[in-house]
Amino acid sequence: MDRTIEDFVRGLRLDAYLVGGAVRDEQLGLDSKDADFVVPGVDYAGLRAALAPHGRVDDLEVAGRQVGARLYPRDRELRKLAPAGIEFAPPRAERSTGPSRHDFEIVADPALSIEDDMARRDFTVNAMARRLETGELVDPFGGADDLNRGVLRTVRPNSFAEDPLRLVRGLRLVSQLGLEPDDATLRQMREEAASVALVSGERVGGGLRSDGMGELSKLLLGRHPAKALRFARDTGVLTALLPEFEATIGFDQRSERQHLTLDEHIFAVVQAAADGDASLAVRLGALFHDVGKPAANGKHAERGANLAAGALARLRYPNSLRTRVTRLVRAHAFPLDHVDELFARRFLREHGDELALDLVLHKDADLRGKQVPKEELEAVARLRSLLEQQGEQPHRIEDLAVDGADLISIGYEEGPLLGAALDSLLDAVVEDPALNTRDGLLERARRLRQ
Predict the structure, then answer these.
(1) Element holding 382 (H helix, E strand)
(2) What are the tens digits of pLDDT across the range 125-135?
(3) HEC secondary structure over 221-270
(4) What is the rounded CA–CA span in Å between residue 3 and residue 26?
């Protein structure tokens, strides 16, 4: 937590407590972008009155209930440090509404203690608070000790029943922090795994801001995604969330190159993509690249792309990211024979700059999840280098020395024939960049019309 934000909140004289991920990250010596505070003894009206002079104040709602306020500071430096706003809320607690374990509601009540608020949290490592006024750490459930021991533990046995998204959030913490669920938490995950299918897609995948940053994405962007995915598989969370993976579990690929079962190969590729600091698109591509292999009849990439498209749509991923990932999965099985300058230009021509780089990064990760000779890894590295070099050569329509207006000036008309002519000219230029001259291309275009 940036000290500028702390100093500002301390100056409000609200006796606020920093809570949640920011405190956890402090204990680990990590920077945190979270700016969430709990303020005992002050109701919503009092919070709003204290915050209003300092910027825009929006209601903070959970499940349709007003539980606090979010401040968007007027101060430019603060706004830059907390672009998503600073969250303030009275303590909240769980209250029973019936006989079932699912019959409860979360209510905000300024009369509650900070310990009461910690008791409703998901995991012990997230159930810590630091009082700004004194620096005191409030840790009623031993979260700091669990962090030191690398343990993920729920605060209560019904934590996942209260909110099934916590199943994926817990796995995200496994990936990000390398934690391991204790036996009781694993048992609870198995018992509640099926309920993850009830969680809205945007909370898991597409993100509440439609930025693609739901809990699954955060899991994949962590340092240990393979570890988290194995726990997801072993508890049933993976197939409840992504039934597309059912057939991959234990699937024998019957290949010397493919020494792992299909699910383990996929996990290894995702981990290799993470180790290579690949983008979210590449990591999602790694997750889905081989799901189409069972029952594919030799066309696993196309089948996998269709399965990926369905899963990503169901999880409400943004259209642009969904398209990028499905294109990657569809094209990922390209050969590495005769990698040279011409191969690189053709590759750029076929896929475009962004997808071409995604494919190479994915291919490197894919090979690292197999038993392959070092020459194949060298070929991938060579292709990546060549893509950077040949990216300066013409490989897009806009790179041509002529355009549609030039062809119209020599007799072409708007329509399919004009587009086909430009494509033909580009094909020729990709084969030999020296052909990319205005006069030469116009002459070639004239011959195409004959």
Answers:
(1) helix 374-390
(2) 999 999 999 99
(3) CCCCHHHHHHHHHHHCHHHHHCHHHHHHCCCCCCCCCCCCCHHHHHHHHH
(4) 12
